[in-house]
Structure formats: structure tokens, C-alpha cells
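User: Before I run my own analysis I want an independent prediction to cross-check against. Here's the chain; please return only the C-alpha cells and, at the end, one sentence I can use as a sanity check.
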Amino acid sequence: MRKKIGLTVLIALVVGFGGTSALAGVTAKLTTAPNVPPAVKRGTETVVVHLQAKEYVGDLAEGVKYAFWSFGGTVPGPMARVRVGDSIEFHLSNAKGIPSPTISTFTL
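Assistant: C-alpha cells:
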């Protein structure tokens, strides 16, 4: 039997109900293509990534517009550098006024 769990519930469990991180760590430095995040010189950590789901209309080809769903307003989305052994704490929110839900449910 499969269970459906709301992603918002899962995020609440990870970040705690106070809105702060339950797993203190370092905040990921996000960059967009073609820039690559700088090399990481540290031990293993919990890396906290904050992304916002946004819709925007951009150029798909010359003279062709397309309504993109993006993370952080870019397609492809931003990049973060992590190390083998890191834990990743992912925070996803919807942009205000987004007409469609992007945070919904998933099946385990």
C-alpha cells in the first residue's frame, strides 16, 4: 500500500515547527549556468539549500515565447556544490501569486 505525504508536512518535519533549521549547517552558495559554485574546502556538513518555484515567460527560440516553471527564476535551475558525505536540507517555497500549485504531494 502506498502512502501520500504532503511535501509541506515533510519540510515541516525537517525544519521544525519554529521555522528554523533542525539540522544546523552551512547555507549553499547557489550559482547559475555557466558559472560553477566555488570548490568546497571543509569537512562533511549539513548543507541548507533554499529554492523558490517560479513561473516566467522567456525565449525558447528566436520569436518563440514559453511559460517556464523554474527554481530561482532560471532554467536550468541554480547549482550548489556539496561533498560526498554531506547531508542536504532542502527548503522549497512557491513564489507569491503563482497560479498553479508546485508544492503538492508525492508517493513513497
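Sanity check: The mean pLDDT is 74.
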